Amino acid sequence: MLYANEAELAKSIRAGEISTLYYFYGSDIASIEAYTKKLVSKLVKKDEQTYNLHSFDGKSLDLSVLSDVCEALPMFSDRVCITINDLDADELNQDDFDYLCGILSNVQDTTTVIINITGISLLNNKNKLKPKNNKLISFITKIGSVCNFTDKKPAELVKLITDTVNKKGATISKKSSEYLASQCLSNINLINNEIDKLCDYVSNGEIKNETIDLLVAKQLDSNSFALAKAVVQFDAKRAMQLLDELFEQRIETVMIISAISMSFIDLYRARVAINEGISQNEVAKDFSYTRDFALKNAFRECKNIPAERLRDCIAILADTDIAVKSTRTSQRLLIEKAIHAMLIK
Fold first, then answer.
1. Which residues contact 104 (CB under 8 A, 6 or more apart)?
2. Which CATH number fits domain 2-148: 3.90.76.10, 3.40.50.300, 1.10.10.10, 3.40.350.10?
3. Which of 270, 193, 188, 286 is CA-nearest to residue 228?
4. Which 3 state secondary structure label does DSSP give 111?
5. What's the burial of 207, exposed, middle or buried (CB within 10 Å: 0-12/13-18/19+)?
6. pTM, whole model, 2 decimals?
7. 256 with 326: CB under 8 angstroms?
8. In the CATH scheme, what is the code of domain 220-343?
9. What's the rounded Cα separation, in Å, for the pair 26 and 18?
10. Distances in Å between the alpha carbon of 43 and those of 3, 5, 80, 314?
11. Tens digits of residue pLDDT in 55-100
């Protein structure tokens, strides 16, 4: 079964609908780790895990050992639980891939195998699932349970943030919670780290947007979009201020240009989509977007920007990227010249 989201997965687990095989993947690593931990705890009690919990590293998986473990019966427990972390099916030859599928298709009713992906990419350079990973997911969908943990939207993290802040003795409004989530690009691990810092700063007080601006480190994606927004709004002062912040973070020049270029590409796609009557969801699907916030921001900000201007800005950034990689001219000077050229377009 393919679960549309983690809420559906959680509902089935709470209802006691336990599968013999789970496959967790996606961009929300923190949720994958949390669900794996919770599921393991539910299936095998802590004092039963010595003999009934088996953990494998997918990068060095011994299929014959896995086969033996999958055939084992639980000892002093109702279930055997097996976790396999970071299994890249495309690294397997065809015989081993077929052997793996054979093992997974014959898992006993008293065993649950959880394959979770937290430290490797399953995608190719076109942001599509690599062939064997795609085939494995399709295979498991038919005989087990699959869930793609995508990054949550800022609004979806409001309750999590407010609850966490309240437990630490501080307060935060719904608006500021959403703002914090957006500044952290909806990364739960990053959000939790920033909450610790913010709560220590305000003690028993309220975390406001001003506090977030003061303490939370700006992320490359959010800063680059803000810079692109400043450029298309002809706000030269704000654009240069944001560029200063990017260089203060000691981010490589090539990465800065890449991030700014991607923000302009997001804006251009959104502008063209609006011109053609194409929805945000269709664009997300067509271009395999995992950055929901980026597309949402692009659709919001592009409405009064001509597509021709965005196209010209992308061309300027492409030329700048080539110049940075091929000349000895100051890299900062090249980016500043690019921003000036985009501002007068």
1. 21, 70, 113, 139, 140, 143, 144
2. 3.40.50.300
3. 270
4. strand
5. buried
6. 0.64
7. no
8. 1.20.272.10
9. 21
10. 20, 21, 8, 52
11. 999 999 999 999 999 999 999 999 999 999 999 999 999 999 999 9
